[in-house]
Specification:
Radius of gyration: 20 Å
Largest sheet: 3 strands, antiparallel
Number of domains: 1
Number of helices: 6
């Protein structure tokens, strides 16, 4: 059996627009998030990591700094809404909770949801050898 290559293509619209993800260990809670591949998030994350490299060098970034900055990035770029909490979602509320190091478990749930939004599902095809031409000499199965 072979894997259908096109089935591994990311759903970039879903990653950029966001989607709802149920959180398994919090019954009734779901988060609407973008994927980690969202361009503005990647750009800001890169800037923050560069700042950390200049400030801390080879030393680890202090956990409270790491959590607060990641929380700010999640609030600004990744988390779009939530459902199932006693607090209504606003970006201000998400920033408040996500920049508080005590809410690190919420970060874990956001990362889980980000992975689910970005996940692809490999499709398998049968009789792939009958449906594809022989590999070229420079291909993965060709002569060297």
């Amino acid at each position: 059996m072979a894997i259908k290559l096109s089935s591994l293509r990311a759903n970039t619209r879903r990653e950029n627009d966001g989607d709802w993800v149920d959180i398994p260990d919090l019954p009734g809670v779901r988060l609407k998030v973008r994927g980690a591949g969202y361009g503005p998030y990647q750009m800001q994350k890169s800037i923050v990591e560069g700042r950390w490299a200049r400030r801390y060098g080879q030393d680890p970034v202090p956990v409270d700094v790491l959590l607060a900055e990641n929380g700010r990035l999640y609030a600004e770029h990744i988390l779009l809404d939530w459902d199932g909490f006693d607090e209504p979602y606003t970006q201000e509320a998400s920033r408040h909770f996500l920049t508080d190091p005590g809410f690190r478990q919420l970060h874990e749930h956001i990362r889980y949801a980000m992975q689910r939004v970005a996940a692809t599902e490999a499709e398998f095809v049968e009789d792939a050898a009958k449906n594809s031409s022989a590999s070229s000499a420079g291909g993965s199965k060709g002569a060297t």
